[in-house]
């Protein structure tokens, strides 16, 4: 029987473990990535347990715990244990499914169990080449905005390195002052997450890009792997009031830096924010990574 007390917090020391496990069992949703978990651990208290060649993840936000489908070899007995644990320790929505393979498996084992879409947390997946080139009619408006930026500003693009990482940190302090990060709890959590990412940039295994205008940083991106064919943009920050349309520049330049290695770029979810949903849709995702959840009531009715 699984015990929540045996789960361990995700820490920087776990990078090699997760890298190796995810090589054998590739992920598709950004929330399961090591970088996401370790950077946001102060907010979501990500924990895991290794059992039977699989890992089980949990997150706890505002004292409400949720569990995820096992990541590893398919083991119906382990899944039963996870469901039992979710009912013992989880909230009203105790189980989440973050990939289509596990969704299919759960439907096979429990065909009558209702799975509910969590649309706000669907990840947007784009062809890297599309974002790098902005070719064709669907991108005509964005392409014009990029060309206007190129006429108005002389800018340079560079990778984040040990030589400029301190400048990135300084830029983010300025960005947080502009956004007034401490005025809203979620922005304060994001501030801590992105500064943790920068302070541990190379230990986590991140990469990223900088846009400079006149030698001054105007935008940055922080990127990590999801699987062999997909990268994820964990953070993307800019000063659009100073440099109009600069978010479009960092987006397309980041894609250009990734396209030789990754077919797809994951730009995470929209969290149900209307403006963010509209923006992400405007870039024409190739597909979405769907997220589903199961309620406590349904687990008790169909899995007991």
From TrEMBL:
It comes from the Archaea. The lineage of its organism: Archaea, Methanobacteriati, Methanobacteriota, Stenosarchaea group, Methanomicrobia. InterPro entries: Acyl_CoA_acyltransferase, LPG_synthase_C, UCP018688. It comes from Methanoculleus thermophilus. Residues 23-289 form the Phosphatidylglycerol lysyltransferase C-terminal domain. This is Phosphatidylglycerol lysyltransferase C-terminal domain-containing protein.
């Amino acid at each position: 029987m699984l015990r929540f007390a045996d789960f361990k917090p995700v820490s920087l020391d776990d990078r090699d473990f997760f890298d190796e496990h995810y090589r054998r069992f590739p992920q598709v949703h950004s929330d399961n990535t090591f970088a996401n978990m370790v950077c946001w651990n102060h907010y979501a208290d990500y924990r895991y347990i290794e059992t039977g060649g699989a890992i089980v993840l949990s997150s706890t936000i505002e004292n409400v715990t949720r569990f995820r489908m096992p990541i590893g070899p398919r083991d119906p007995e382990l899944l039963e244990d996870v469901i039992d644990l979710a009912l013992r320790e989880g909230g009203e929505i105790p189980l989440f499914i973050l990939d289509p393979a596990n969704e299919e498996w759960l439907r096979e084992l429990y065909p009558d169990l209702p799975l509910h879409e969590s649309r706000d947390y669907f990840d947007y997946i784009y062809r890297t080449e599309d974002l790098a080139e902005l070719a064709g009619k669907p991108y005509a408006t964005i392409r014009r905005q990029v060309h206007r930026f190129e006429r108005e500003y002389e800018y340079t693009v560079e990778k984040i390195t040990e030589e400029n990482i301190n400048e990135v940190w300084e830029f983010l302090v300025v960005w947080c002052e502009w956004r007034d990060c401490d005025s809203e709890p979620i922005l304060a959590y994001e501030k801590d997450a992105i500064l943790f990412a920068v302070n541990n940039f190379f230990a986590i295994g991140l990469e990223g890009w900088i846009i400079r205008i006149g030698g001054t940083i105007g935008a940055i991106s922080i990127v990590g792997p999801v699987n062999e064919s997909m990268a994820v943009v964990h953070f993307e920050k800019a000063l659009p009031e100073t440099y109009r349309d600069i978010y479009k520049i960092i987006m397309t330049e980041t894609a250009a830096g990734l396209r030789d290695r990754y077919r797809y770029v994951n730009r995470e979810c929209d969290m149900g924010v209307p403006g963010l949903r509209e923006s992400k849709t405007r870039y024409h995702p190739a597909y979405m990574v769907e997220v589903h959840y199961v309620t406590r009531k349904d687990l008790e009715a169909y899995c007991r």
